[in-house]
Automatic annotation (TrEMBL):
Pfam families named in the record: SBP_bac_3
Coiled coil: none
Matching SMART domains: PBPb
GO cellular component labels: extracellular region; outer membrane-bounded periplasmic space
Annotated keywords: Signal, Transport
Family, similarity comment: Belongs to the bacterial solute-binding protein 3 family.
Compositional bias of kind Pro residues: 31-46
Protein name: Extracellular solute-binding protein family 3
Region described as Disordered: spans on this chain: 26-76
CDD domains: PBP2_GluB
Domain Solute-binding protein family 3/N-terminal: 87-310
Any one of the GO BP annotations: amino acid transport
Species of provenance: Kribbella flavida (strain DSM 17836 / JCM 10339 / NBRC 14399)
InterPro entries from the UniProt entry: Bact_solute-bind_prot3, Solute-binding_3/MltF_N
Amino acid sequence: MRKHLIAAGSALTLLALTACGSGDYSATELPPKPAAPTSTAPPPAGPTCTNNGTAELRSYAPKGPVPPTGGVLEPGSTMAKIKQQGRLRAGISADSLNLGSRNPITGAIEGFDIDMVREVARAIFGDPNKVELVVISSPQRIPVLQQNTVDIVARNMTINCARWQQIAFSAEYYRSGQKVLVQRDSTARTLADLPGRTICAPAGSTSLDNLKKFYPEVKPITADTDTGCLVLFQQGKAYGITGDDTVLAGEAAQDPYAKILPEPPFSQEPYGLGMNKDEVDFVQFVNGVLEQMKADGRWKASYDKWLAPTLGPAPAPPKALYGRAT
C-alpha cells in the first residue's frame, strides 16, 4: 500500500502540472471539456473511407516542395494566416512520457509528438519555438480542431475512417500498437487472462474502442488522460491499463512496480497529425514537412532520442500514402 500511495502522489503531481502551456508562451488555459455527444454512433463513412486499412491512411499529396524555411508563403493560405497570427497553436499532451510531457527540471513540454509540431513551426516561421502548446485531453482532440481553438493536434492520435469524417489527417508519421500494463507480480500473460478485471483506457480513444470490441469480458474504466489512468492503476482502482505501446512504455518507466504484458500488440495504431478538415492546403504543407523529416534524418533523430531507449532501434519511417481527393 505504501508504494501505491507514493507512486500515486507522484502521478497526481504530474497531472496537476499538465494544465500549463509551453515555456515559450504564457500558460495556455485548458479548453472546457466538450459536451457529451447525443449519439455514440460514428459518422457514416465517406466514399474515400472504406475501413480496408489503406484508404483511411490516404492523405492529401503535397503540392510541391515546401518553401524554404521561414520563406514566403502563398498569400491567403492557411500557412500565411498562421504566420500572421505569430505562432502555431498545437494541441498536445503534457503527461505522455517521451511523446509529450513536461520536463520536471526545465519545465518545457517535450517528446516525439512535440518535435513533429516544432518542425512544422520551423517550416512556417524559420523558428521551431514559434509554437503555443495547448494541453488537451484525449476527448478534446477533435473538438478543438472543429472549433479552431488550435491549428494542429499532435497527441498520439490514430488515423481512422470515423475521424476522417470530422477532421483531416496528415500522412502517417508513426505506427504504434495496443498492449496492456499490469502490476509486476501479475501472472497474466494476455488480456484474455483477466476476465472481470478493471482495465483503464483514456476516454475518446481507439484503445477504449478496441478493449470493448476484442475483450468484452473485462471491465473498462476511463480517465481523460494517460496520467489519470496511471493514478487509478496506482490507487488500485484499475487492475491494468491498455493503450499504445509508446504510452505504456512511458508509464512503465514512471512505475517500477508495473510491467507490460509480453503478448504482441492486438491492434495497429497509425498516428497522424490532426487538422481542420477544411484546411486541405495546410494538410498538404504538413505532409511536405513530414516527407522532408523522413528523408533528411530528422524523424530518425527524434525517434532515437525519445523512443529508442524503450522501444528499440528505429524502424523505417512509415511510407506516406496519398490519393485523397481534394
